[in-house]
């Protein structure tokens, strides 16, 4: 199927009443502050909601309209798209929106104007594209180990699609890699043909910081909006068990995200933080025009050499933005008032309308 025609999206946008825009997204992931922020900036909000999941949006009073669907795949139905267009909707994508609407569908059949760059979403989803962007940017990432036979220090092994779940493990040698692969095969977590897809990289011993940036296309500048760190099961539970008992439990650590907490980084790390944001946005402009447009997140580990090592990115609003629904220490510095990522997104739309530049920030 061919890619969405940008001309068609701009024609739809052209037909919108700019005084009567609705901000719409799927009720999930990081949508609460998107709706709250959009309302604070004077927009109407519409939550697309699977039946039975509407409670938080009703109880927090953040949605003006409820568009109920029976199943997530209905997001890309022609009728639903038309309903959104009739409401002059601009969609704010987030992780669940992308997962449930489907990346292919967003690229080929979802015609509703979106804030951000719909083409960059694939660069987050595919590890090779993500690495290409990061390598070209010249930012520090974990070193890749091309062959299990080359494992001679602690390595992290990741299987595609596992995203921290049961498909990740740590290996200190080739023998340990082989043993753990055998165990996974026995448990049927992987099949024989999956082994070649194992991505092996340097294990970065350090603390986790997920850095939330906002790239303003209108200002041509990266802003640091907030930082969170993650609670992951079972790894964060395991470190609460004494070392002796950890061995007795024999548990294989997994890295399933269960929550986030806000953090600030050592102030002397901030030059590196801005440097990463500047480099990645500059490279993205050339590789995937118009590049990052709006929120994105670099997931990092900081080692004791004080290197900020980026192991993953989100090319849209990341779930960790929920740690600063009322603004973060950093977003406060820019705006002198609490400002969430969702409100920053709505502000960009408002400025785009005011400056008659909305089409630059819509895809
Ligand atoms: P991801 O699915 O890539 O977001 O990773 C899930 C978790 O695995 C991260 O939050 C880290 O705790 C851990 N992790 C991922 N990559 C590495 C690495 N190279 N070194 C150490 N820990 C890692």
Bound molecules: adenosine monophosphate
User: For this structure, what is the CATH class of the largest domain?
Assistant: Alpha Beta
Q: What's the total count of β strands?
A: 13
Helix content class: 25-40%
The largest pleated sheet is described as:
5 strands, antiparallel
Termini gap: 18 Å
Describe the structure concisely.
Helix content is 34%, strand content 23%. The chain has helices at 6-14, 31-40, 55-59, 78-86, 95-101, 103-108, 121-125, 127-137, 174-186, 235-238, 243-249, 270-287, 329-335, 341-354; strands at 22-26, 44-50, 65-69, 89-91, 144-145, 155-158, 168-171, 199-202, 207-216, 221-234, 255-262, 294-302, 308-314. The strands form 3 sheets. A 5-stranded antiparallel sheet has the order 11-10-9-12-13. A 4-stranded parallel sheet has the order 3-2-1-4. Strands 5-8-6-7 form a 4-stranded antiparallel sheet, with helices on one face.
Helix and strand arrangement:
Blueprint (H helix, E strand, L loop, with lengths): L5 H9 L7 E5 L4 H10 L3 E7 L4 H5 L5 E5 L8 H9 L2 E3 L3 H7 L1 H6 L12 H5 L1 H11 L6 E2 L9 E4 L9 E4 L2 H13 L12 E4 L4 E10 L4 E14 H4 L4 H7 L5 E8 L7 H18 L6 E9 L5 E7 L14 H7 L5 H14 L9
Parallel strand pairs: 1-2, 1-4, 2-3
Antiparallel strand pairs: 5-8, 6-7, 6-8, 9-10, 9-12, 10-11, 12-13
Helix pairs in contact: 2-14, 8-12
The structure holds adenosine monophosphate.
């Amino acid at each position: 199927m061919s890619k969405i025609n940008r001309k068609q999206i701009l024609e739809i946008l052209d037909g919108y009443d700019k005084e009567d825009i609705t901000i719409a997204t799927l009720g999930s992931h990081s949508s609460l502050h998107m709706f709250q922020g959009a309302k604070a900036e004077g927009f109407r909000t519409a939550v697309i909601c699977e039946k039975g999941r509407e409670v938080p949006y009703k109880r927090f009073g953040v949605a003006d309209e409820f568009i109920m669907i029976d199943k997530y795949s209905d997001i890309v139905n022609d009728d639903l798209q038309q309903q959104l267009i009739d409401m002059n909707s601009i969609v704010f994508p987030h992780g669940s929106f992308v997962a449930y609407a489907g990346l292919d569908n967003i690229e080929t059949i979802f015609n509703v104007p979106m804030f951000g760059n719909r083409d960059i979403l694939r660069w987050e989803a595919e590890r090779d594209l993500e690495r290409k962007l990061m390598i070209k940017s010249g930012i520090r990432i974990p070193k890749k180990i091309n062959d299990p036979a080359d494992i001679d220090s602690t390595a992290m092994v990741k299987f595609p699609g596992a995203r921290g779940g049961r498909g990740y493990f740590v290996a200190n040698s080739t023998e340990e890699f082989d043993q753990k692969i055998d165990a996974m095969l026995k448990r049927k977590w992987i099949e024989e043909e999956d082994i070649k897809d194992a991505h092996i990289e340097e294990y970065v011993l350090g603390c986790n910081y997920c850095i939330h940036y906002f790239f303003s296309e209108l200002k041509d500048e990266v802003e640091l909006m907030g930082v969170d760190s993650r609670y992951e099961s079972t790894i964060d539970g395991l470190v609460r068990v004494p070392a002796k008992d950890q061995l007795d439990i024999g548990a294989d650590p997994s890295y399933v995200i269960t929550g986030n907490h806000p953090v600030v980084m050592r102030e002397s790390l901030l030059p590196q933080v801005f440097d990463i944001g500047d480099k990645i946005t500059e490279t993205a402009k050339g590789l995937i025009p118009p590049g990052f447009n709006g929120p994105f997140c670099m997931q990092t580990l900081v080692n004791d050499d004080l290197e900020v090592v980026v192991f993953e990115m989100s090319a849209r609003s990341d779930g960790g933005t929920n740690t600063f629904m009322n603004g973060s220490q950093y977003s406060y510095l820019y705006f002198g008032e609490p400002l969430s990522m969702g409100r920053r997104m709505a502000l960009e739309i408002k400025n785009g309308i005011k400056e008659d530049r909305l089409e630059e920030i819509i895809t």
